[in-house]
Structures are given as structure tokens and as C-alpha cells.
Amino acid sequence: MYKRLSIVMFPFLVIALIGACVWGYLEHQEKNTILIKAENQYQRAFHDLSFHMDKLHTELGNTLAVNETSSSSYRKGLVNVWRLTSQAQSDITQLPLMLLPFNKTEDFLANMANFSYKMSVRDMTKQPLTQDEVKTLNTLYNHSSEITQQIRGVQEKVIANNLRWMDVESALASENEVHDNAIIDGFTIVDKKVGAYDELNWGTSGVTVFSKHDVKMLSGNEMTADQIKQKAIQFLGVPDSPSIKVVQNGGNAPEHQSYSVVVPSPDKAQADIQLDFTKKGGHLVYFMKSRDVPTAKFNLRQARDVANEFLDQHEYKNMSAVSYDQYQNLATIHFAKREKDVTIYPEQLTVKVALDNLEVMGLQATEYIYSQKKREIGQPKMTADEARKQLSANMKVSGQTLAVIKNDLDEEVLCYEFIGTMNKNIYRIFINADMGLEEKIETIRQEQAQAAQDQKKSM
Q: Can you give the residue ranges of the Sporulation protein YpeB N-terminal domain (predicted)?
């Protein structure tokens, strides 16, 4: 009987074994195909990075070769520098360097892109390059030469030894210490060299994209950890407890000194409540209370009213909602300061409200706290009707107001803010109130347009 059964089953077992082998082979081939594709993408991005850095160094040299009074040639060169720097940044993001300390080089390229862009868009006939800015360009030219040479050295090793980026990814993901990897060693050396560069003077228009907050703008005295703890207790309305933890941040850097407060949630199933305060003045810049919001029983306007009341009860006065958003039953309302019927967009903050019970769940007020200052808001040189002529004749304008925004040169400018509809899209357009130039255009959603309309009605 067993003999007969084995005779019957044997062909099926052979077929199953062959099928398993074929399946394993196909899986192996598919895995190899994916690995080859990923490796090819890494190699392309790396060689593109080397090419773009070489072109960037050449373009900086070409820009410096022309006369400083030739504004059109300088602008063309700076636009090319910005374009090539942005391409180099894009190449880096496509490489498996997330676990490798390469942030100094990325920051350097980001600041270079920001510097070249802001100089290229300004009117050089009225504001020519300063000697400090020309000196910075020369320094960037020298630094780009060093970075290019280092990356070329890595490229030569990759080509000569047929090195693979997949090995780099595996090595970085491994918990074991990495030894003798030419690519990792090469990029580490590049980052160390960039980190050793002296701080550059980015000029009046070349404010870095990672600009430090000016603590001198903050009001009030230096706060102690215990004073911050009491402010957090007062803000939340909870009793004092040893479980409330206060940690000072920033070390010896005054621009980064702050306090983080962690308050255990009354409900152990929920996350702890987190707050951040500035050390100088003890201003609340961040608050977050996390929990699930299962349903939305209230609408965005009701959430806006609650957020307005919340801001009025604390130190954030004269704020006006400028846009709404809703995600996972949480309302996010963006506010800006209102002063003399003018919206001050640099002084912005965000409030999160749960739509199940209208509880305020979060606050982000960093830009508001650090942008406060006394402003002299003058009268516009153009009328609203004159500014509106800069809009398309096909745009249906539904609202307008005056606003202060930051332009591409990081300068505060007075603008007419228009909300309009065209081609079934809603736009927020800022027209310079002195020169009639278009400063900024934003495509906004219906909720944001409604916020702008509500803002206009509240004037």
C-alpha cells in the first residue's frame, strides 16, 4: 500500500520541488534586478554630483571673471550658480547618506544656493555687489575647488576599484563599526573639511537659510528652570508635581537657549504633554498635547473662534486667522498679527484644535515670538485700484487688504493682498504697494479663501 502511495505521490513531489526551485530562481532574479536598478540610480546620482560640483566651480570662476559693474553678466552667472547648487543638493538627496554625517556640506550648499539666488533677483543697478559679497564669492570659488577635488578623488576610486553604493548602504545600516570603505571615508573627509571652513559673511542679502533667531528681540529677563516650570503649570492649569520635568537646551549658544517641559498626561494611555519656552522672557513657542480624535463634531469656524479665544487669553494679542486646514479631525488654524488694519505675515503662529470637543491641542509660535518688533508702517504710494491693474483681467477679485510680507530678499515690504478666482483656482496675490510689482502668488484652497474673507469682514 505504501509502495503504491509513494509511486502516486512521487511525481507530485518532483513537480513541487521543481516549482519551488523555479520560484526561488525567479525571486532571486527579481531581487537582483531591483538591486541592479538601485545601484545604477546611486551611481548616476554620484557621477551627476561630481559633474555638477565641477560645473559649479567653473561657473563661480566665470562670474568672478566679468566686471563687477556688468549687472546682467553677474546676474546670469549667479542664476547659473544657484541652478547648479540646487542640482548638487538634489544629487545628494538621492544617495544613501542618511546615516552618514554629511550635514555640514549640505548646509554649506544650501546657504550657497540661498546666497546666489537672493543676489541674482535684486536690482544690481540700484544695489550693486558690495566688496564683502565679492570676497564671499571668491571664498566660495576656492571652497568649491576643494570640495570638487575631494569628490573627484572618491570618483576615481569608485571607477578604479568598481566600488558599489549598495555596499555603502549595507555598511551604514549595520550596527557594526564600518572599516575601510573608500566611499564613506571620502565623504566623511569632505564633510570634515567643510566643517573646518571659517564662518562666511553672507552679506546683507545673503541671510542663511538656517539663520539664527535674534534673542535680543525678546522681551523680559533670563528665566530659571523653576520659573519655567511654574509658567507651564499656570498655562496648563495643572497642580505642581515632581513628575514634571524641565530640561535646558542650547548649551553655550545664546540663540538656541530654551527650556523643554514634559508634563505627564492625566490619562496614561495618552502621550505626555510637551512645551518649549525661550530662556529669555519665558515665552511659550511650542505646545503639543497628542491624543486620538475619533470624530469631527464641530466645523472649522467654531475651531477658529476657540483658537482666537485661546490666543486672547495668553500673550498672543490682535491675531487674525489667515488660513484653515483640516486633517484627521484636527483643525490647523494659521494666524497673523493685525496692526492698523494691516496683516503682519512675519508674525505668524499656528493653533491646532480637536474637532470632537474643541480642545486646543497644539501651538507653534516660533516665528511670532522672534519676529516681534516695532514697525513703522507707512502709507502705500499706490491706490488699491492702481495695484489691481497688475492682476489678470480674467481674475475675479473677492477680497483685498493691506499686508506686510517678506520678499525674496528677506525684506519686509508693504503689499496689497488680493484674493481672486481664475480657471477654477483660488489665488492669494501680493502686489507691492509702493512700486506695483508682483511680490508673491499662492494657490489656496477654499477653506483658506474663506479665512481671508472672514478676515476682511472683521476689519
A: 30-167
Residue 35 dihedral angles phi and psi, to the nearest 5°: -65, -40
From the list 271, 273, 269, the residue with the least C-alpha distance to 229 is: 273
Query: 36-44: which pairs have CB atoms within 8 A and are 24 or more residues apart?
Result: 38/166, 39/164, 39/165, 39/166, 41/94, 42/94, 42/95, 42/96, 42/165, 42/166, 42/169, 43/158, 43/165
Q: Are residues 37 and 78 in the same domain?
A: yes
| CA 110 to mean position of chain CA atoms | 11
Shared domain check, 150 and 78: yes
- Do 423 and 395 form a contact (C-beta atoms < 8 A)? no
CA-CA distance, 426 to 455, in Å (whole number)? 16
Judge whether 434 lies within some domain: yes
Interatomic CA distance for residues 279 and 225, integer angstroms: 9
Measured between alpha carbons, how far is 93 from 111 in angstroms, rounded to an integer? Answer: 16
pLDDT in tens, 24-55: 555 555 555 666 777 778 888 888 888 888 88
Whole-number Å distance between alpha carbons of 64 and 108: 20
Proportion of the chain above pLDDT 90, given as a percent? 21
Report which secondary-structure segment, H or E, holds 173. Answer: helix 165-173
Residue 200 resides in a domain: no
Looking at the structure, tell me whether residues 414 and 352 fall in a common domain. Answer: no
Name the more confident of 197 and 247.
Answer: 247
In a domain, 211, yes or no: no
Query: End of a domain among 371, 394, 429?
Result: 371
Between 131-161 and 182-195, two packed helices, what is the crossing angle to 10 degrees?
170
Tens-place pLDDT, residues 150-207: 888 888 888 877 777 777 766 666 655 544 577 777 888 888 888 787 777 665 444 4
Grouping H, G, I as helix, E, B as strand and the rest as coil, residue 228 is helix
246: which strand partners? 261
**Does residue 28 sit in the same domain as residue 148?**
yes
Containing structural domain, residue 236: 217-371
In degrees, rounded to 5, the angle at the alpha carbon of residue 68 between the alpha carbons of residues 63 and 73 is 50
- CATH code of the domain covering residue 437: 3.10.450
Split into its structural domains, the chain has a count of 3
Residue 338 belongs to a domain = yes
**What local confidence, expressed as pLDDT, does residue 357 receive?**
93
Q: Judge if 309 and 450 occupy the same domain.
A: no
State how far the alpha carbon of 336 is from the alpha carbons of 209, 257, 433, in Å. Answer: 22, 25, 19
Contacts of 18 (CB under 8 A, 6+ apart): none
Among 319, 315, 301, 317, CA closest to 358: 301
350 and 390 both lie in a single domain: no
